[in-house]
């Protein structure tokens, strides 16, 4: 049954207590870790549909004495559903860069698709069967039926309105319609004092009822409606209120108070408030609001402290932080919709009752501030740090990340510091010894001795990489930084003057072996870091682009970093560079595809490998002219093939036999018979003939 006839109505008190109990951030995280977010979304949608369609003509009294209505149950279920959906992601998040960031696929349709798939598929592996058994224990038999979004017409209608609000500005609302009457009632409820003064927040329209005509009692009676009907009118209310504020008919304080009254009346309206203001900030059509402490709240009390702490956090990166100084000539400003949203949030008391609603607005506010021009995010952090000092560290850290959002050179500098810190190639106190500890650090915050300390570069990059617009640009930069790191490693471990001197001594050869081993250890570390950064930045698509396009392009091009092979340790540097690229490529592939065929992503592997190996074979045959150093190319080919033979033999079984034969032939020209034979040896039955021919042609030394 649906609507007021649903059996769920009788369970309203129980459902409300349960929904409030599982709405905390920690509980949502636990559901996520157990893979139960799609299941939870599937049971929240019917609750939202039923209670959102029920008028608040009935109420229930809890044992605590609190009285709840269908609006309360709906709001708690709806806000929890939005948290699972990653609702706070702005429109730009869906088109940022060349790869869709993780998390933006979590639309309601996607969640239901995953939920249906989980319950329909028994699972082929032991792990899948275990997950399926756990899901069946958590679900009753009736919940195993597939659910589709069309089953929830009210939710579907709201989603369409939400998407339309993001796509374009609101169209006119005709008077006399049911939505207009709700719109009129909401304005009367939100702005009582203005209505008593005879002012109107909406332009006069012939035949329309004036917003000041109805009294507060009339408006409250008119709003005894289902929550879905009220939500349909909320975008028009927000548009009218923001327009009135922009034209001086409504003060900022009255706007914030009215928004708070709306949110208190129907907490679920916070979803539409976030949706509307986010879209308007993205459009950039509103004049800025001056945060001067008179009209809007002022961040001046601790803005200088925020600037100082941002500089401390970024001290180890070498990135310049733009000044936050705001004087009479350049006062602090925010886009008007963002100023309205932050003013609304700071009207909330910080207690458990409001946490679930602030946790809905907070991520959206954080994302919007990060996407706006500098210094919007530091201003937001300053305003909130005045209200909640215990959140100061988190807020300042969020503000520090936005330095990288608006400056691609700062991101490159951060990547450079990631390499030097991990390899221990600089004198910074945070990274004298290098390694993962220097890359990721050991936390930060003012509770440490000495106050806020520099944040490790790896942690910073994990927080800012989603804001990179040109992901392909990052691939080229990571590749370039890897090769320069190899040169620095060689200069550190194999200095040319010492190599020449020790060649003439008794223990020169032993010294060279030890130094080369130490250099190779660091080269592998640099390659693993580079592969990790590529995988984190762009995932599967970026790794495949790296192997198909970026690496071949790099080998064809001429590079200024490569040393003269004839001088000093130049040949060693070129060889180390080739091995670094080999490790870099293979590790990137294993991150994306795995070493076997268990991952769904491995289905794309044969095509990418075939393209890359065909390039290698053509270059070995002389069909492609290379611009890189010959020692670099030879080290790359031998290293890449050796790693695949030893670590990923499954990869080679997916490659066309003719490509393997061509590659094997090129290796034989370099006198790499053993490696050529090993390559054919893992090629399966199709390569047996070529392997036998190689053994016969190579003579007894290979046999």
Automatic annotation (TrEMBL):
Sequence intervals crossing the membrane: 525-547, 572-595, 675-696
GO biological process: regulation of phenylpropanoid metabolic process
UniProt keyword Oxidoreductase, yes or no: no
Region: Disordered, residue numbers: 121-142
Coiled coil stretches, renumbered: none
Comp. bias intervals (Low complexity): 130-142
Domain of life: Eukaryota
Protein name: Mediator of RNA polymerase II transcription subunit 33A
Naturally occurring in which organism (per UniProt): Escallonia herrerae
């Amino acid at each position: 049954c649906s609507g007021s006839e649903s059996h769920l109505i009788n369970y309203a008190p129980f459902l409300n207590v349960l929904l409030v109990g599982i709405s905390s951030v920690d509980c949502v995280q636990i559901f996520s870790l157990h893979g139960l977010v799609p299941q939870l979304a599937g049971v929240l949608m019917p609750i939202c549909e039923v209670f959102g369609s029920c008028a608040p003509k009935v109420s229930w009294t809890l044992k605590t004495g609190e009285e709840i209505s269908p609006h309360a149950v709906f709001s708690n279920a709806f806000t929890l559903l939005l948290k699972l959906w990653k609702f706070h992601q702005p429109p730009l998040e869906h088109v940022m860069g060349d790869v869709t960031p993780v998390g933006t696929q979590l639309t309601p349709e996607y969640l239901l698709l995953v939920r249906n798939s989980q319950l329909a598929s028994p699972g082929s592996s032991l792990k899948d069967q275990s997950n399926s058994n756990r899901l069946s224990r958590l679900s009753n038999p009736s919940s195993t039926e597939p659910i589709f979004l069309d089953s929830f017409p009210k939710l579907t209608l709201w989603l369409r309105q939400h998407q339309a609000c993001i796509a374009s500005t609101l169209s006119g609302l005709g008077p006399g319609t049911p939505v207009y009457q709700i719109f009129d009632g909401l304005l009367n409820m939100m702005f009582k004092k203005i209505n008593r003064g005879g002012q109107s927040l909406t332009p006069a329209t012939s035949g329309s009822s004036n917003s000041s005509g109805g009294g507060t009692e009339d408006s409250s009676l008119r709003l005894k409606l289902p929550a879905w009907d009220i939500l349909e009118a909320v975008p028009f209310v927000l548009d009218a209120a923001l327009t009135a504020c922009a034209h001086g008919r409504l003060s900022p304080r009255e706007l914030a108070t009215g928004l708070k009254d709306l949110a208190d009346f129907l907490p679920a309206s916070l979803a539409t408030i976030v949706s509307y203001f986010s879209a308007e900030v993205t459009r950039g059509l509103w004049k800025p609001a001056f945060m001067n402490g008179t009209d809007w709240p002022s961040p001046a009390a601790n803005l200088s402290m925020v600037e100082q702490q941002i500089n401390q956090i970024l001290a180890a990166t070498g990135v310049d932080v733009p000044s936050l100084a705001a004087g009479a000539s350049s006062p602090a400003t925010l886009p008007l919709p963002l100023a309205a949203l932050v003013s609304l949030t700071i009207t909330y008391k910080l207690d458990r009752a409001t946490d679930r609603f602030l946790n809905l607005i907070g991520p959206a506010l954080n994302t919007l501030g990060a996407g706006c021009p500098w210094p919007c995010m530091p201003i937001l952090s300053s305003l909130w740090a005045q209200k909640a000092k215990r959140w100061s560290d988190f807020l300042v850290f969020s503000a520090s990340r936005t330095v990288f959002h608006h400056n691609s050179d700062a991101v490159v500098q951060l990547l450079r510091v990631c390499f030097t810190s991990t390899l221990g190639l600089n004198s910074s106190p945070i990274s004298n010894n290098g390694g993962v500890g220097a890359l990721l650090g050991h936390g930060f915050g003012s509770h440490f001795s000495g106050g806020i300390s520099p944040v490790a570069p790896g942690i910073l990059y994990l927080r800012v990489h989603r804001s990179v617009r040109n992901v392909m640009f990052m691939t080229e930069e990571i590749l370039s930084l890897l090769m320069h790191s190899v040169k620095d490693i060689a200069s550190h471990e194999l200095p040319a003057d010492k190599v020449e001197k020790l060649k003439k001594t008794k223990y020169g050869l032993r010294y060279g072996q030890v130094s080369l081993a130490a250099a190779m250890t660091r080269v592998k570390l640099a390659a693993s870091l580079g592969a990790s950064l590529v995988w984190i930045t762009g995932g599967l698509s970026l790794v495949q682009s790296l192997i198909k396009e970026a690496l071949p392009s790099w080998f064809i091009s001429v590079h200024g970093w490569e040393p003269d092979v004839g001088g000093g340790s130049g040949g060693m540097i070129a060889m180390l560079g080739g091995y670094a690229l080999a490790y870099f490529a293979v590790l990137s592939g294993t991150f994306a595809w795995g070493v076997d065929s268990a991952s769904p992503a491995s289905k794309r592997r044969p095509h990418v490998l075939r393209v890359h190996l065909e390039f290698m074979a053509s270059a070995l045959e002389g069909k492609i002219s290379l611009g890189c150093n010959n020692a670099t190319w030879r080290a790359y080919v031998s290293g890449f093939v050796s790693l695949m033979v030893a670590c990923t033999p499954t990869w080679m079984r997916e490659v066309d036999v003719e490509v393997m034969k061509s590659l094997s032939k090129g290796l034989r020209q370099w006198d790499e018979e053993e490696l050529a034979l090993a390559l054919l040896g893992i090629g399966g039955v199709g390569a047996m003939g070529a392997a036998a021919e190689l053994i016969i042609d190579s003579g007894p030394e290979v046999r």
